[in-house]
């Protein structure tokens, strides 16, 4: 995960296709793979991941992750599938695969909301993002310090229906 003090741009997408197009455009614009993340519900409701436990799918991932994230799966750093108790299965790639740890998943959807809030989003907005993801939308985020406007434009051009620029929370700062 990137360090505190950097700027993060978030974009919500109604479907995987637009999110994939946005991630491809970020890659083509020169954003680093380890600065981009995707978080979404796993489209296969029969996914049998252990509730509360993250399954590391590795870079390039399994056929499941590759099928879910398409061609971008091999470019993003880290892929994970997990099931949140009472919420269901999720797929995370890039910064989200490392941000949402297995131990945190026992907290249910609060783990997702908390991870989003840690990236500088208000608790209210983080809850909204969590609800949108539960409803089938896809969250794409990118650390884009110095290139926030460019990243936001890329997300908007590729169909983001909501974007936001934030600064991650610094834990332990006085």
Question: Could you give a quick summary of the protein structure above?
Answer:
The chain has 174 residues and is of the alpha+beta class. It has helices at residues 16-28, 63-69, 95-99, 109-118, 123-134, 148-157, and strands at 8-13, 36-41, 54-56, 79-84, 88-94, 138-143, 162-166. It has six helices and seven strands; from the N terminus they run βαββαββαααβαβ.
Number of domains: 1
Strand content: 15-25%
What series of H and E elements makes up the topology?
A: EHEEHEEHHHEHE
Enumerate the strands of the largest sheet in spatial order, edge to edge or round the barrel: 3-4-5-2-6-1-7
Distance between the termini: 22 Å
Relative helix content = 25-40%
Sheet of most strands: 7 strands, antiparallel
Helix/strand structural class: alpha+beta
Shape: globular
Our count of helices gives 6
| Low-pLDDT runs | 45-65
Number of strands: 7
Quaternary organisation:
single chain
**CA-based gyration radius:** 15 Å
Mean of the pLDDT scores? 75
Could you please describe the fold and organization of this structure?
With 174 residues, the protein is an alpha+beta fold. It has one domain (8-166). The protein is 33% helix and 22% strand. The protein has 6 helices and 7 strands. A 7-stranded antiparallel beta sheet has the order 3-4-5-2-6-1-7, with helices on both faces. A hairpin with a 3-residue loop joins strand 4 and strand 5 (88-94). It is globular, with a radius of gyration of 15 Å. It starts with 7 loop residues before the first strand and ends in an 8-residue tail after the last strand. Mean pLDDT is 75; it is low at 45-65.
